Amino acid sequence: MKNRSPLLLLASQVWKNIVFQPGSKVLILFMNGLLIGFLIVGLLDLNEHQRQIHGFGEEVREKWENSPDKHPHRMAHYGYLVFREKFPLSYFDFGMDSYLGNVIFLEAHRQNTANFSEANLSNGLLRFGEISAGMILQILVPLLIFFWGYDLITRDRENGTLKILFSQGVEGLELVWGRVFGLFWVSLSLVGLPLLLGFAFLFLQPENELLRQSLIQYLVMTLAYLAYFLILSLVAVLVSAKSQSSKSSLTALIGFWLLFTLVLPKVSQVVGQSVFSNPSKIEFDSAVEEEIIQQGDSHNPNDPHYASLKDSLLQAHQVDSVHKLPFNYSGFVMREGERLSTETYLRHEEALLEIFQNQQKVIRIAAWADPFLAIKLSSMGLSGTDEAMYQYFKAQSEAYRYELAQTMNNLQIDLISNQIKSSSDPSARLTQDHWKGLPDFHQQFLSLGQVLSNQLSALFILGLWLLAGVLLSVFYSKRIKVV
After folding, report:
1. Transmembrane stretches, by residue range (predicted)?
2. Is residue 482 part of a domain?
């Protein structure tokens, strides 16, 4: 015992004083059970979601391929349903998943929104937040760390043991870090087993093609959470070292907790939306529609833009009627109209995404002053439940929609006679074998490099907070008052 480091002795003292208390044992067991329970619920929900998505996707594909013979443009309007899969780590931190749509109907000339989010289908309570293992780690565990750590130094000062410790040769830095490590070890008793089980749950998902990427992201996320708990342990001990009494220390730490978890996140969100206001869906759709109308109507043969296009085609092929062109003129017009409308939509969407990114920048700036925001952003990003992963799905859906529409237009151009005047003409119908040529939709996720790149700033902020805590511990350890 005499050869043990004072730092380890102080840390073990904190561990014993907290963990061996009957009330603390109950809290530790309860928190472990709560975390494990929500991990299991999240995993079951994820597996059920994936099972349903795959089943619906197979049903949609079967109906598409077995559609009766018809005109290809009618097939383009018949449309296709795509379903959003969840990333394998989404069971850990639900993030924005519950508020985002899961189904998009794809059709020609129109970009539809994603529908059937869990928030819209719920009874309304979900709008106040959905509890996940990540949410508990971000909000409830810090509260327990502050509750256990608020008097680690003030209590020694109040009962006179601080003077004894210093008289026995314990240095201020050893005292601070002994308390910090002890408090951090206690926090590990809350999260150690759940984090290990969360890692093991990745192997329980059927057909997990992203296992390697998920494991790496989970390890990075675990290190981020451990850094977060160490930062909170530092904050608790440093506030206790700086405070004159245990009461003032507890009051300050509760204030920090409210500021970190409630005030700053909400304020940053409101400021971002106020400074960079985004248009409503009606305003966005109206702006797109207005520009498309100005470009021309592909369904109107007398439209000036397409009349000019017709004259150019007739001149280029040296014919006096569209019926004499070597391809289906209506299909050509539909293809041109799809190209123009899609370019217009993507241009407006790019401007809208820039607004959303500016709103996120405000939140990321606030994260420099709030470790909770930093861990929340990195946890959502590494779990694959953030805005970036959702926008990646939407981009893939739009690319598939455009491919579907243009594939049908090309079939019309190449296979439908130019002499046919109506799509209802039986000779304008193509057999269902042609529908199988459209490849099925297969959702991709952001790569490991893209995910880590997106979360680099949040992880860097956690590192700076940890460094700042170390520097402050050196500074305040020399100024601890004995009385």
Report:
1. 26-44, 131-150, 183-204, 216-239, 245-264, 456-476
2. no
